[in-house]
Amino acid sequence: GVGSSGCTVLYNNVRHLMAENPSFVCIEGDESNAFQRASRPEMRQRIIEHLPECARYFAALYDHAANLHYGSRRLPPNLSRNGSQQGCAWGMHLFALSRLRMHRALIDAHPDVHIFSEADDIFFVGPPTAAAAAFRDWRQQVEASHGVVNVGKCMAWTADHDIHRSQEWDAITALHRPRDPDSPIRNAYQRLNDQNVAVDADGVPVGINVRGPHEGIRIVGHPLGSDDFCRAFYADIAAKTEALVASLTKLTEYSTPKA
Questions:
Q1: How far is CA 102 from CA 58, 238, 242, in A?
Q2: pTM, whole model, 2 decimals?
């Protein structure tokens, strides 16, 4: 779906799945500049296949470099020949079409994993080994289509306090970048550090952020995690709302100039 209602449906589906299956893991995938890197030829093919009456309109909009201006500067044509443009009414739909075949293939290849997507947000929910395999497959397909997975922003969360003692946890730690050495899943960190894994320029193992049962992640703007995590999330929103209301109230506190 598109819009807040689609986000709510996605969040509620993930929330109920995780509540009904405590051993499941939820893995979030994140792409860097996803809209700008989406394939226009792929968009065109899906338009022809599903919306042939719109093909000429698409060609008028996207068969050439966009004439984009930022203040007094014009974006070089070589930087606007791919992807869907910000501000375009079709932008989100075109991106979804560019990912349609990929997502269908992922769903067919990983029947034990629930795969949800909203625009460029994607989530894999299921048993740890199966969800990790789906995430790796998604990453390979994104990179094969000239996209870039922002691994440092990808996250995994589970409510299962015992999962780090199981063999299935190895599938997640293989994707993992350590965050907190004092975390309850420290044993999983240690197993990872004993492996031969790739590291970045700072010597930090490269992988997604794995969050334990006491933490949580955000699902399209909604909290999914422990009671403390969700409580802190809503408390932060309440504090920001209170500050905004106070600022608005000040706008009414002015004296009317006397004639």
A1: 21, 39, 43
A2: 0.78
